[in-house]
Amino acid sequence: MVGSKKNTVYSMLVLLPSLILLLIFVYGFIGNSFYVSLTDWGTGAALRENPLKNLIGLENYRQLFTGAIHDRFRQDLVNAIFYSLFLVAGTLGLGLFLAIMLDKGPKGENTLRTVFLFPMALSFVVTGTIWRWIFSPKGGVNLIPTWFGKERGEFLWLSSREQVAVFNWQNVPQIVALILFIIFALLLYGGWKKGRQTQIIWGAVLSGLMLFYALVLHNLLPPIIPYEEFHGFSLATIGIIIAAVWQYSGYTMALYLAGLRGLPVAMYESAKMDGASDITYYLKIAIPNMWPITLSAIIIISHISLKLFALIFSMAGADNASTGHPSVLMYLITFRANNFAVGAAISVILFLMAALFIIPYLIQSYRARR
Amino acid sequence: MKKGLTLLITLLLLLPMVSVWAGGQQEGAAEAEETEAVVAPEVELDYGKPSGDLEIFSWWAGDEAPALNALIDLYNDDYPQVEVINATVTGGSGVNAKAVLKTRMLGGDPPDSFQVHAGQELIGTWVAAERMLDLTPLFESEGWLDVIPEDLINLIGTENGIWSVPVNVHRSNVMWYIPENLEEWGVEAPQSWDDFLEIADDLEAEGVVPLSLATNWTVNHLWESVALGVLGADKYDGLWNGELSWTSDEAVEVWATLDEILEYTNDDFSSLSWQQATDLVVDGDAAFNIMGDWAAGYMSTTLNLEPGNDYMWAASPGTEGVFMFLADSFGFPKGVKNPAATLSWLKTCGSLEGQDTFNPLKGSISARTDSDLSKYNDYSRSAAEDFADNRIVGSLAHGVTANEGFMNDFATVMEMFLNNRNPEQAANAAQAIAIQNGIVSR
Amino acid sequence: MSQNTLRRVSPIVYVMLLAAMVIFLVPIYMAIITALKNPAEIRLATAWHLPSYPYWQSFVEAYNMLLPSLRNSLILTITGTVLSSLVGSINGFVFSKNRFRGSEIVFTLFLFGMFIPYQIILIPLFQLLRAIGIYGSLYGLILAHVVYGIPITTLIFRNFYDQIPNSLVESARLDGAGFFGLYGRLFLPLSVPGFVVVGIWQFTQIWNEFLWGVTLTKQSSQPVTVGLAQLAGGQAVNWNLPMAGSFLAGFPVLLIYIFFGRYFIRGLLAGSVKE
């Protein structure tokens, strides 16, 4: 509702302090970090009271993606993607499962809900400390096989250096091009089905370009780094993922439970009338109807996955490269190695990854509100 | 509505631009100031009577705390009116403390005095950043120039001054073992890495880990002992003064040897603290451990073992007659809140009584030549003798030979090596970071 | 689904729920038994065993070690929560009942601040706090928490005020209530549940925060999360202390969660923008 003119003036005056603070602390600071990432602040006299900084363009980014000593950043980036994927899959799967179990209102529902949600209230530092003990190589979960008369487990939960799904970093442009090709090809297909001409043209041109790059150009151009460098899914991250799923499944459970309870009872009854079993009801009717909830859960959880800093820090330590994450590396490079510019560049990359999810989400919710 | 969106996006894009510009303005101003040559200010010898709070920053928590506490008690006997704030940040070799210190120094809030490894770690970081006071007048007035070996003074000083007061000397290249256990397994402490590799298989057959290892920095610690053993003292020094290329065959050989040795270590090493690696040896699960002689402090003070009897030591394989040293020291940051107390603290640190109180508990030896050896245990006495007549080289892992930039990058190279075990590639990367950090010129 | 009287919950569901509950409680079990063991009794091989007798000393020791940081956290959390709730309340009032042209855009600009990874603002924040001379103190942390708390508190209050019928506002306006009169006399008294939701949410968020704690404070002002990380991250071989410490650090939020769980969940769901 819209008030009078006087009201509007008051409203603006009330908002002004918050707005100014956020303009500085959010937008201004983001811009400043971006600026720092374009400088060489970090070499030589970085720690002086009035440090020297020179603009060096995108050199820090180039170094991060192709420089010999930033091997760890590239692995951390790969880790970040896997963290996000598994955290989203794990929390959505487990949360949905728990919500369906609770949907029918079993006895003790309140207690159960409390138990599933309490980890969410705790700090990552608290839970990380506990999980570190649980995953210590010679104790904790590795002892479980001994209860069944088997040998103690040998898996190094947080320090294993094993990797699966290994790929050569030199092939990353090709892989990215192929992924883009698939996206553009889908666009082309969609346009063709709906008979939208511009979409067909764009889809065809872009997918063609991507395919051309992936199949021809990539092999002709010099590789982005001069030697083969392998990265993959680091098995040491499994422990962190388990802890994070444990902590956030209650949240997706709460989201889904609210969603399930929000579905009209008639929906369930008519499904039953048609002879559907409970399982069919959930799979065919309830879950598809909760798509908006799933979408917002995906966005929130993938955004949380970029904030794993405290969990990794307290569970595996900042130095442990196998469980690394760009947010941890940013801390190390900035505050231990004094390299502010490179630290800022990493933070910008993290920010862009988050923005990829958040900006479309905010625009969509902005439209929904209007 | 479209208009609103456009406005939103424009705003979002515009703001960073403005702040980039504002940032640029501000940096420009800083640059202008910087062009004037700065001469490091010297410490004054009279700041008045010390009182108030004195914040001492270190990473001596846990097992290393008793030594520091004893030193603080001694200080308080002399200066009861000063309230000492003992600010410690845990984590071996200062891994976490250095990050905290950095944020505080940058935040314009230096502790009154902080622990720092003597050598390039201090010089390459805080002296280069012009954040420390020159302590030469203090060294002169206290007569320390006569009692602290010149080699050591050279390492803690530059042409422009002396930057910290060393409180101890530690040895890095020591191999620890339990004599009783070795006897049982029928092996002797190896004289060279070849010897070690020979007996390692037998030890593994016994179900014993030949060499225990711990978290990341201890691998760097192992590397420097291996490098010294493989290269010898002259060529090891050559790595730091540019006489030996990091890509030379000898340097590659260091990595190749490390690769072989790593086959005989406990595979859960990255999740252990250095004490836990020592525990493996003490508990008979591992045969040897290479660690600085703070391990002696841990075994004698915390575990109540008797040096020379319950546990034994030798120079790490192939390094007999060479003493790879590191030293902890305290400096005087510019702009401290309580300079009078800082000055008095540094006097206590450098005094004979201070050093002979602190070091027997810490498991280190005094940086002074006039120290009373009867206060020290068997291990320390032998270390003191070695320090007096051995060839002295500096430690990499503990900040003597290279600046922090190199140390951090080296940790990354090591991480890379642990993952791919490629000696050639590690040597190339080490060369690259040595150039980048100004250890060797292009 | 609210009318579930017709449905029978099958025993299989109970079994699965029970199993899930047990698994969810494993970390708590581990923390309790380890905290209660005598350090000499803590062995990796017997990690799952109950302590032979409860050893309370660890809690006393951990409490003594964490006391200064617990005190800091308490001051920080209470101040931060109160301030950011107040700001959020009046902002939410504007965004809900006093919309003007462009207020939705401003609101979206606000919300954005809630979703950024805080690493991106860390370096400038650090420099700003240094420049205005409050780096390393609790004030700096409080400022950060208040500012970055504005988006979420505004959002929750806006959603809350949206539930107050507009007719009520209209009639109050007809009775001559101005902007502040309306807020002070009508909305503020009605806001108690809103303050509870926001307060609980901010309390847990600020209490649990770690990144700023570890980069923007010195020892004398560090919050309990940093204190705990120190206690656990060092050379601690004795796991009784970190576990007891975890308990102490987690206790206040756990208490709040148990007593005000309902409100906590509302704050949680508000975090997904649309309630």
Biggest chain pair interface: A-C, 105 and 105 residues
> Shape of chain C from CA axes?
globular
Radius of gyration of chain B: 24 Å
Fraction in beta strands of chain B: 5-15%
- Give the rounded overall mean pLDDT of chain C: 88
Strand pairing plus helix content of chain B: what structural class? alpha/beta
Q: Note the quaternary state here.
A: heterotrimer
* Low-confidence blocks of residues of chain B: 19-37
Helix/strand/pairing class of chain C, anyone?
A: mainly alpha
* Biggest sheet layout of chain B: 5 strands, mixed
Helical residues, percent of chain C = over 70%
Tally of helical runs of chain C:
11
Question: Describe the biggest sheet of chain C?
Answer: none
Strand order of the largest sheet of chain B: 2-1-3-13-6
**Basic shape of chain B:** globular
Q: So how many helices of chain B? A: 18
Short description:
Chain A is mainly alpha-helical.
Q: What would you say this structure looks like, in words?
A:
The complex is a heterotrimer of chains A (370), B (442) and C (275). With 370 residues, chain A is mostly helical. Chain A is built from 15 helices and 2 strands. Chain A is globular. A two-stranded antiparallel ribbon of chain A has the order 1-2. Chain A has helices at 5-37, 59-66, 71-103, 109-121, 124-134, 144-147, 172-194, 197-220, 237-262, 265-273, 278-289, 291-305, 309-315, 326-336, 340-369; strands at residues 163-168, 230-234. The termini of chain A are close together. In chain B, 52% of the residues lie in helices and 13% in strands. Mean pLDDT of chain B is 86; it is low at 19-37. The model of chain C is unreliable at 1-5 (pLDDT under 50). Chain C has 11 helices and no strands. Chain C is mostly helical. The interface between A and C is large, with 105 and 105 residues.
